[in-house]
Amino acid sequence: MKDTTQFLGKKVLILGLAKSGFAAAKLLSSLGAVVTVNDSSPDEGSKEIAELRSEGIHVICGGHPDGLLDEGFELVVKNPGIPYTNTVIKEAIRKEIPVWTEVEIASRISEAPIIGITGSNGKTTTTTLLYHMLNVAKKKPLIAGNIGTVSCAVAETATKENIIVLEASSFQLLGTDSFRPKIAIWTNVYDSHLDYHGSSAEYVKAKAHLLKNQTSEDYFIYNADQEVLREVALTSNAIQIPFTLKGKQQKGISADESMIYWNGEPYVSRSIIKLPGEHNLENILSATAAAILSGCDKEPIESVLSSFTGVKHRMQFVKELKGRKFYNDSKATNTLATKSALAAFQTPTVLLAGGLDRGHSFEELRPFMGNVKAVIALGETKKRFAEFAASCEVEQIILAENMVDAVRQADLVSVEGDTVLLSPCCASWDEYASFEVRGNEFIEAVMSL
Predict the structure, then answer these.
(1) Angle, to 10 degrees, between the axis of helix 278-293 and the axis of helix 123-136?
(2) Tens of pLDDT along 218-227?
(3) What residues form the annotated binding site?
(4) Locate the Mur ligase central domain: which residues (predicted)?
(5) Binding-site residues for ATP, please?
(6) How does pLDDT run across 340-361, given as a tens digit for each residue?
């Protein structure tokens, strides 16, 4: 951690506890800030709150008191999920008090260079791939952000010998000011979180904080197959590294059906890649480019590409049983993710889908249902998904009682050569606390066959 006095004596309000608020409060207090934490949830014997109070940090629970910002706060650090329509945030902006997320603090104290990764899809896979490449190459990477430990806690212990690989959401990036990653990766952009950002333009603007402070000494790796990101790249001051799936290109990293190219030269054969799906090739290209720019030799990169089979709950290979392959894609909570999953397989597919009913249409999946031989529908949307599957002329449609029943039914209707794919196309909150819990139940059910 850098030796810094920038927070010494500064009055800071942490809005929202959770993991990020807890880590930011402890760090800022250790750096000499006068910290107050405010969380809307009541204090119900929280160990974290007790620990903060034992260290002299003021904690206010159960709501936002009137006049909270009248105490002379010079900085607000908010939980990324708290919207800017929150009354305290609106008042802070009116009073011209800076509003950050803890990612900004991490960037200010980190001795290690940061590789920042964002995108509507593929962030976690790209982050994990790159981490493994750097790790095999003995570059001492540390993983942070959405996928790992809170970034300011990672930055607190990082040294110049490390590289921080940071997965950053639009929520986190919007609350940054001077954040400047040495390498920025933007995997793709699709409409997402519009209830938070208000419009597609504001969503893109929030993610563009990733590169706004980069200079000609930094790198920006971006998806050149998307017009919106080509336009974003025009605003970048960094060295631009485009990636594309549209055949060999002379600049950046590219791929055709058989080969990955680096600046137009053959780099590695696609035949060694274990991770399935064209959408994952985007993640592979961006991670590989960042690994090369970080000084990795080809051998560690090839080693990871020939062994990495996926992130847990994202196109995760679970097991092969009697010639059928089972995949856990529980993290697919929308049509875009399930569409990508279906496109990854050319084999007859038994699809397990359904979950929380938000009323969204499944129509975008229609062009990708050709290889689906059976649908096992579950959750709140099971009847709607079954009706959609019937309109796609899927041969077999089964309404399952629960995940164990769904896996049992998939076992019965599948044969050798089939793919059994859990890709729900819906959030998990109708029956599960998270998509992780849902995915773990699928894995357990498959393992018990």
Answers:
(1) 40
(2) 999 999 999 9
(3) 119-125
(4) 117-291
(5) 119-125
(6) 899 888 899 999 999 999 888 9
